[in-house]
Amino acid sequence: MDNSILILGGSGFIGSNLTLFLKALNYNVVVVDINSESNIDVRNYKMLYNIIHNSNIKTVIWCIDTYPSDIFYYEINITGLTNIINIMNILSIKNFIYLSSNHVYGNNEYNSEDSICFPITSEGKMKLLSEDMILNQYIFNYYILRIGNIIGKENNNYNRDTIFNQVDLYNSNIIKEITLNNIIQDYLHFLDLNEVIYKCIYKLDVFNKTIQKHIFNVGTENHLCDMRLLNKMGNIDCIVLNQPIYKCTVNCLNVKKHLLWNPQFKIQNYI
Question: Which CATH number characterizes residue 47's domain?
Answer without folding.
Answer: 3.40.50.720
